[in-house]
Amino acid sequence: MPHDAADRPPAVRQLRLVVEAEDYESAVAFFRDALGLPEQAAFSGDGDARVVILDAGRATLEIANPAQKRMIDDVEVGRQVAPRIRVAFEVDDARAATARLVAAGAEEIAPPTVTPWQSLNARLDAPADLHITVFQELRTLEERSTLDGFGTDGDRER
């Protein structure tokens, strides 16, 4: 997208990730109660159909090529573990969040680890068969933008 796109209103208003959970109650308790995502809406229908929409704050879509995905796994875990899709949640305290989520039923894959991009990241297998990262930013975006390898393709064109 051209850099002047920031001057236009967004074409997309919301990113909503829809996840099927065999154990619905466990998944809701984990993400709403343990992780702390506020319930925005809930609906039910015939045949015990249920859905809850949880507010996850600001959403971004992170697109990584295979080499970047491998590098992130190596940095955060030390081996290749992530499936094609991994969900990441920014938290204020990655260590406390990790402990809380493990107590709520997640399996810790890797403990909180400081990354080269200056965040504290932990990996977990969570309910609804989701592989997740909880991360805490240790520096501002402005501070991180001065680090080697931190920038966009658009930045390189300037």
UniProtKB/TrEMBL annotation:
Highest rank taxon of the organism: Bacteria
Species whose genome carries this gene: Micromonospora globbae
UniProt-listed PROSITE patterns: VOC
InterPro entries assigned: Glyas_Bleomycin-R_OHBP_Dase, Glyoxalase_6, VOC_core
Residue intervals of the VOC domain: 13-137
Protein name, UniProt field: VOC family protein
